[in-house]
Recover the amino acids of this structure.
């Protein structure tokens, strides 16, 4: 039986957003901008890690967002029971398209043994777990506009059921040439990754569902500006937007959860 979300609380231990080429400003102050391609060299240098050459943009941006959680990721012992849930609808579709094109034009034998595994829909979540040694439950969600909120809900269930002590939830979407070709009708899409670390920590803000709030037009506009067309990343972005606010009303305007001391 599903858990009653209205009766469950958890804590937001840390949060991070990574958007290539964007200044390090608050979410509420960010504006739509043309997507900037993220290369594996940038990420390899930032993380001081090899083996990222064949990773797609969704994976690379997610790694940068999780790295932004910093020391909050905890000790090796804490990471043993830290789960990973990733939400993305476009995910690694560019890799899938490129592999399909190569197979159609040549043969499956022409595909790279290094690149082909990245066509798996779970490649993002698996890579995060491997790079950061997070050994708990590992899940990938690709289920529409509510995917991000569902990911937070699943994290909440893992915590409540004792399946994990902490959960890293990542929302990531990519805006590149392959995706614009497949979905040409949207003028602007979120291009980046957002990560939150959820758990039970006494000095962290508590999160609980909000049932009623008076949302102003200004607050709604701020949410749409940042989260519009964010698809699978929207739920995580809304939670981070709420965390930037001091007023419960403003929090409610940005997410179905309230972040409170």
């Amino acid at each position: 039986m599903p858990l009653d979300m209205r009766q469950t609380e958890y804590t937001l231990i840390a949060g991070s957003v990574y958007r290539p080429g964007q200044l390090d400003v608050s979410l509420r102050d960010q504006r739509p901008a043309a997507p900037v391609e993220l290369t594996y060299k940038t990420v390899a240098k930032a993380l001081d890690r090899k083996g990222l050459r064949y990773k797609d943009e969704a994976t690379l941006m997610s790694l940068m967002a999780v790295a932004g959680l910093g020391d909050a990721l905890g000790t090796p012992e804490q990471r043993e029971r830290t789960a990973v849930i990733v939400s993305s609808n476009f995910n690694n579709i560019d890799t899938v398209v490129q592999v399909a094109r190569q197979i159609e034009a040549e043969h499956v034998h022409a595909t790279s043994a290094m690149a082909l595994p990245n066509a798996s829909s779970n490649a993002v979540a698996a890579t995060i777990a491997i790079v950061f040694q997070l050994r708990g439950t590992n899940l990938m969600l690709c289920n529409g506009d509510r995917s991000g909120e569902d990911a937070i809900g699943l994290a909440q269930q893992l915590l409540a059921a004792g399946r994990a002590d902490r959960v890293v939830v990542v929302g990531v979407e990519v805006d590149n040439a392959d995706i614009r070709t497949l979905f040409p009708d949207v003028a602007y899409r979120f291009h980046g990754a957002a990560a939150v670390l959820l758990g039970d920590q006494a000095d962290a803000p508590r999160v609980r569902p909000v049932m009623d709030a008076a949302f102003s037009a200004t607050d709604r506009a701020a949410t749409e500006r940042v989260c519009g067309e964010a698809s699978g990343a929207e739920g995580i972005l809304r939670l981070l937007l709420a965390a930037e606010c001091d007023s419960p009303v403003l929090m409610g305007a940005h997410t179905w959860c309230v972040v409170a001391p």
Observations:
- The chain has one domain: 5-202.
- The longest strand covers residues 10-18.
- Strands lie at 10-18, 82-87, 138-141, 166-173, 192-199, 206-209, 257-260.
- The CA atoms of residues 26 and 244 lie 8 Å apart.
